[in-house]
Structure to design on (163 residues):
């Protein structure tokens, strides 16, 4: 008898509650303890694990997980070669796909993409942002942001953010 379970990555953080509700609508009960990264689920064939959506595709690609729930943005950012099985249209607050935007301060002289030449841009989505700017012919310094990204442009630490 094969006792192997399907290792499935569930997103921790902002999508955690929406994911639990999604599984509930599918007939599963997922229970997540505040102090554990291993949730319980009422299906003995599933082995769930909580991970950040940003890193999910890497673990699927390397075979540590059989599948995971993450956004296409993070698959592209990581350059992961994984099979996309389905598009689940849900998010923390909406049923619409996530949209990344480039933003500057209200008083910024930056009014077009070309104005970013030589400027600093902060984002979690470094590789995708660099590729987009390069495709548009814009050379800018793109740096990783651990969070509170929008505050960095207000404080003058960077010229623009991608969020």
């Amino acid at each position: 008898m094969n006792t192997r379970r399907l290792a499935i990555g569930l997103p921790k953080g902002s999508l955690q509650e929406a994911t639990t509700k999604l599984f509930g609508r599918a007939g599963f009960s997922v229970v997540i303890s505040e102090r554990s990264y291993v949730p319980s689920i009422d299906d003995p064939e599933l082995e769930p694990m909580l991970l950040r959506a940003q890193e999910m595709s890497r673990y699927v690609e390397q075979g540590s997980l059989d599948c995971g729930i993450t956004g296409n943005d993070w698959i592209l950012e990581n350059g992961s070669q994984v099979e996309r099985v389905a598009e689940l249209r849900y998010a923390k607050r909406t049923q619409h796909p996530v949209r990344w935007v480039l933003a500057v301060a209200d008083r910024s002289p930056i009014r077009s993409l070309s104005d970013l030449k030589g400027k600093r841009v902060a984002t979690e989505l470094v590789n995708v942002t660099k590729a987009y700017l390069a495709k548009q012919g814009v050379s800018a310094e793109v740096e990783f942001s651990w969070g509170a990204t929008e505050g960095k442009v207000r404080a003058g630490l960077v010229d623009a953010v991608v969020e």
Observations:
- The two ends are 48 Å apart (CA to CA).
- Residues 102-162 form a domain with the D-Maltodextrin-Binding Protein; domain 2 fold (CATH 3.40.190.10).
- The mean pLDDT is 92.
- The first helix runs from residue 16 to 25.
